[in-house]
Amino acid sequence: MSERVNVKKKQSAPIAEAKAQAALPALGLKGMLRWAWTQLTSMRTALFLLLLLAVAAVPGSLFPQRPANPANVTQYITDHPDYGKLLDNLQLYDVYSSVWFSAIYLLLFISLIGCVVPRAIAHYKAMRSQPPRTPQRLSRLPEYGTLVIPSGAGIPASDAINNAAGILRKRGYRVEVRDADGALPSLGAERGFLKEVGNLVFHTSLIGVLVSVAAGGLFGYSGQRILVEGDTFVNTLVGYDQFSPGTNFQSSQLQPYSLQLDKFNITFDRESKGKFGQPIDFAATVTTKENPDAPPKQELLKVNDPVSLGGTSIYLTGNGYAPVVTIRDGTGNIAMQGPVVAKLQGQNYYSSVVIKVPDAKPDQLGFVGFFLPTAFVNDKNVSFSADPELFNPQLTLNSYYGNLGLDTGAPQNVFELDVKNLTPLNARNLAAGGITLAPGSTYTLPDGKGSISFDGVKRYIGVDIHHNPGQVSALVFALLAVAGLILSLYVNRRRVWVRTGTADDGRTMVEYGLLARGEDHRLAGEAATLRKLFSTEWQLPEDSAAEDSATSQQTPSRTSDNVAGSVDNAAGSLTTPAGPTGPEKDQ
Amino acid sequence: MPFGINETMGQYSELFMLLAAGTYTVAFIAFAWDLAKSSKALRAVDLKAAQAGTAAKVPVAAGVAAGSAGARLDGPADRAERPSSSAARVGGAGTGGVRTADGDMKYAAERRVPARVAVALTTLAAVIHGAGVVTRALGAGRVPWGNMYEFLTTGAFLVAAVFLLSLIRRDLRFLGTFVVGLVIIMMVAASVAFWTPVGHLVPALQSYWLVIHVSIAVLSSALFTLTFAMSALQLVQSHRQKTVAAGGADKLGFMRLVPSALSLENLSYRINAIAFIGWTFTLMFGAIWAEKAWGRFWGWDTKEVWTFVIWVVYAGYLHARATRGWTGTRAAWLSIVGYLCVIFNFTIVNTLFNGLHSYSGL
Ligand code: HEM
């Protein structure tokens, strides 16, 4: 990009011309118009698409989203029979992968590329071309001033322009001196090319972020696993409870590392009143092996502190209790023994328990109930858990026998038992009553169906395992984007022109003007600094032309010619620097 | 492991908060008094000038009108031109014959006693408030932004602090009633609706990213608060300038204390630019933290969605400032919409929406 489309139409012709020439040495009027038109439309389009993107992102926070929680979506559709289905057709449960959302951001990025490429080319050219020609009337520039070097100082116009060039070069301007030995030598200077570079880097990096995210979706994978204390996870497909591969995933990507959960500790808040009993620290001690033959290594896995292994990161995302039970069947054999993962249901680790015993003979057995770490009964005779720690652990179960339906091969949810085809053995409303077990106790099932012992309690953790190859590059691009953004917002692109001349009485007259490109609230400050530097260089008193400060307040759009003119006169006899003979040579 | 909890400190903190809120309330009254009084005084001056003026056939506020009264009538409403420093200065003065405060927002020579009292009171309140925040941190043994109560009290402190700091360089006292009023609302909301005793952080929040991510988020929000106030005033001022320029009566006399619409736009742009960078960092650090905590840096969680929406709206604002026909009033509206999203994100999303971020301490 070079000059913005901000040349006011109503501007008086010479300024508009000066600006246009200043900005676009290479293009004609027609080219400029076409260019301006493209710029105009694309900028508006970008703005429109940006706002559209903001609006389009909102529904994703209003309706449950499938990728986050598919069960919530199903529930929502059931709860809203009138319009639940319709919303689904509109992809409002998959907002961020929906056709319309994708269309908006893809259009935005196409527009972005269409915007960045020509701007990059234009800027490359601008950086290699000379500063723009000196405008005829510097007094029309937003910052303008004059200085007068007394005739005795021995600084002719050509020296003055070279001095000014030196000063500007030191301040980081690129300077071109024109017509140094002529009657009206001048210079054009420009600085702040990094502003545009920053802007281009920013926008390009946004594309980089998008591509990185897409790459992560293609080549990444993620999965979940529940580990009871003592369990070991091996990074193979069967090791996962749940696995979601990226589009281009290959199982050979999995490095067969292992991770064993040795111990899981929770610290509960015993200090504060409001949050008494809330967990304040989770710490899992794990033993890891990079591959089956590697030496074991003990590590600590915590929330906010994942373990990195074999190109994946392992996160602690859940935990709970796993009561350990032994179940004997009607024949007296142990049909099942071990921890049962209890699913969190309510306060203080109030959890549900489902036990399926397909190996029990002669009848398969099933248990459904609750586990409470600190069991209490309230005055309405309802059990609840009074504390998250194991002060009074209790298993309350109903039991069933019959065909569990596991042999059909259809996948079943381990946390649910369908009791439709089962015969109840134990329940509150039956003669046998429900089963209530404390650790160490055993209950014998009615009708000789077997027994169940509650041996103890272990803890379990849920871990998420993620591999996202796009992550690092997304971060790099994001950092680049910020760097570019800061450059683009805080570097000021400025142009300075200086013209000198000799008055009839031998004094050297200097006039200068500054023009900002883009937002620049420090332009006046820069003008003041330059003025000071010039004054010091030529040993002029600070206020040699104090009345100029009035001029520096005018804007290019202000057409009060008389004001500018009067200062020109006041400044001395360098009356019309833009006179017919003068700067024409520059052009 | 977190540090221990000190309930006594927590109680001191609440006392400080209460005292601060009371002092803010007095400061608020002083600011309001300043607006009323200065507006009256200015009107009297204008009246006199008008009487003298009609005799000498000089327009009201003659010094201001020089050469620029007409030129700027279209005002910032449809300016495609991007102002530089000098444009701002002229904009401040030349507002079509409407009297406004200095466009530079530099302190003028005349003293405004109520305003000075108000600033002094606000400073006092902020010091007490700061003590409240610090004792809260000591009481909880951690940074004081782990739940809604703390976001609000610490956030309100930052709003006040940012406002007072900017007063050092600019005369933004015209924003006083708004800013102090908002601080009071935040503190009242904190203690009425979100009160939480000192406590430990849930494990999900125990991370140095809480310090980085949330502090930048709150700071950016404080800046957005200032620009919201300015953009709102800009809309009113621009309406007023247009009305007066069209020969209408100046019904909003107190707006004389407020700089011209263009000056407001320029300053709020500069603050918004800083705040936008801050918000970009908020977004990025949030993503890095999400990666640490949940294993993915972006998952369109409700809070993430709204953080993104806010970011895009303000990006739109920055674009608008560079788009012909979108500067001025429209950009101001975008700035306001952006701030409404910030508020929404903080209130509704934190309390009513379910998501991974739902640990606001309710
Ligand atoms: C992914 C979407 C986009 C985002 C998030 C975005 C964001 C931004 C931001 C934050 C700025 C302010 C930085 C600055 O002022 O230099 C900016 C400036 C700019 N953007 Fe974009 N942009 C996007 C797309 C586009 C597109 C498609 C175009 C092309 C038409 C575009 C053209 C510009 C221009 C010309 C500026 C410079 C304005 C100025 O100097 O203030 N942007 N953009």
UniProtKB/TrEMBL annotation, chain B:
Region feature Disordered, mapped onto this chain: 71-97
Residue ranges of the TM segments: 15-33, 115-139, 151-168, 175-196, 208-233, 271-290, 305-320, 332-353
One matching Pfam family: Cytochrom_C_asm
Localisation: Membrane
Ranges where the Cytochrome c assembly protein domain occurs: 145-357
Topology versus the membrane: Multi-pass membrane protein
Keywords: Cytochrome c-type biogenesis, Membrane, Transmembrane, Transmembrane helix
Keyword Zinc-finger applies: no
Source organism superkingdom: Bacteria
Database matches in PANTHER family: CYTOCHROME B_B6 PROTEIN-RELATED, HEME EXPORTER PROTEIN C
Entry protein name: Cytochrome c-type biogenesis protein CcsB
Species, as recorded: Pseudarthrobacter enclensis
Lineage: Bacteria, Bacillati, Actinomycetota, Actinomycetes, Micrococcales
